[in-house]
Amino acid sequence: MDHTEPEVDQGNDDALIDKLRDRAWDPGLRFDKAQVPLAWIVEHYGQGAIERIQGRVIGRSNSGKVTLDARADEVASYFANSPREPLFPPITPQEVDAAEGILGRPLPELLRRVYTEVGNGGFGPDAGIASLTTGQRAPGHLADWHSSVRMHERNRTEGLPSSWLYLVPGGCTMEWHVSLLAVDNPVLLFDVDGWEPSWGEDPHDGLRNASPSLRHWLWTWACGGDVRAQVHDRA
Question: Where is the Knr4/Smi1-like domain (predicted)?
Answer without folding.
Answer: 90-224
